[in-house]
Design a protein that fits this description.
It is a single chain. It contains five helices and eleven strands; from the N terminus they run E-E-E-E-E-H-H-E-E-E-E-E-E-H-H-H. The strands form two sheets. Strands 1, 2, 3, 4, 5, 6, 7 and 8 form an eight-stranded mixed beta sheet that branches. A three-stranded antiparallel beta sheet has the order 9-10-11. Strand 10 and strand 11 form a beta hairpin. The longest helix is centred in the C-terminal third of the chain and has 24 residues. The protein is globular. 29% of the residues are buried.
Length: 204
């Protein structure tokens, strides 16, 4: 069953619109939504929702650069660790446990991105969809087949395990501790920074 973008009317928007965004430790998911002839990103954080005029893949690539790398380097890292090349999960920023996986080819207009570290549980739902319970107790329904979602969760877990094993082999105990230390979910600096920079997009 082919995934479809969520159509939305600008007049009914409840989300804050932000001009710039980096995936962070509070980002639960990034999904494409259609406004007029353009594709925007609907972003769910642990304590808010946002809209970006950039596509999800553009946000992911920008996020890799923001944390000192680039998308192709992160993709090569995944390949080196696991030999995954299609729909490859990414180590976006390991110190703060920022790993993301795509639900389709990253270039696809229907591709969503999820952070497994903020997912508590998930189930198959009617209509070949997946219901996801996040750590903040918010439950959302996504137009992604359960078999795809489950496989990507497992693949991301494998990427993270192999990455940690690499660090252990190199004896980098400090970094290993930082990645595994208990974390308290809190509002991101990104959210606070852009809340006061709300602009209305002008879709064509």
């Amino acid at each position: 069953m082919k995934q479809k973008l969520i159509p939305k009317e600008l007049g009914s928007l409840k989300q804050k619109i932000i001009e710039e965004y980096e995936a962070n430790s509070c980002t639960m998911s990034i999904q494409p939504v259609e406004y007029g002839s353009k594709i925007y990103s609907l972003i769910y954080e642990t304590d808010g929702e946002f809209l970006s005029p950039f596509k999800p893949f553009e946000i992911i690539k920008h996020s890799c650069e923001f944390y000192g790398s680039d998308y192709q380097s992160r993709r090569r890292l995944t390949k080196d660790l696991t030999n995954f090349t299609r729909k490859a999960p990414l180590v976006v920023e390991p110190i703060n446990d920022i790993f993301f996986f795509p639900t389709a080819s990253p270039e696809s207009s229907v591709c969503m991105w999820f952070s497994p570290s903020l997912i508590e549980n998930y189930w198959p739902a009617p209509g070949v969809k997946t219901k996801v319970l996040f750590l903040n107790k918010q439950t959302l329904l996504f137009d992604v087949p359960y078999i795809t979602f489950n496989k990507q969760m497992e693949r991301t877990s494998h990427v993270k395990t192999r990455y940690l094993q690499r660090l252990e082999r190199k004896g980098n105990k400090k970094t290993f501790y930082l990645i595994n230390k208990p974390k308290v979910v809190k509002a991101s600096e990104t959210q606070r920074e852009y809340t006061n920079h709300i602009k209305t997009p002008n879709p064509k």
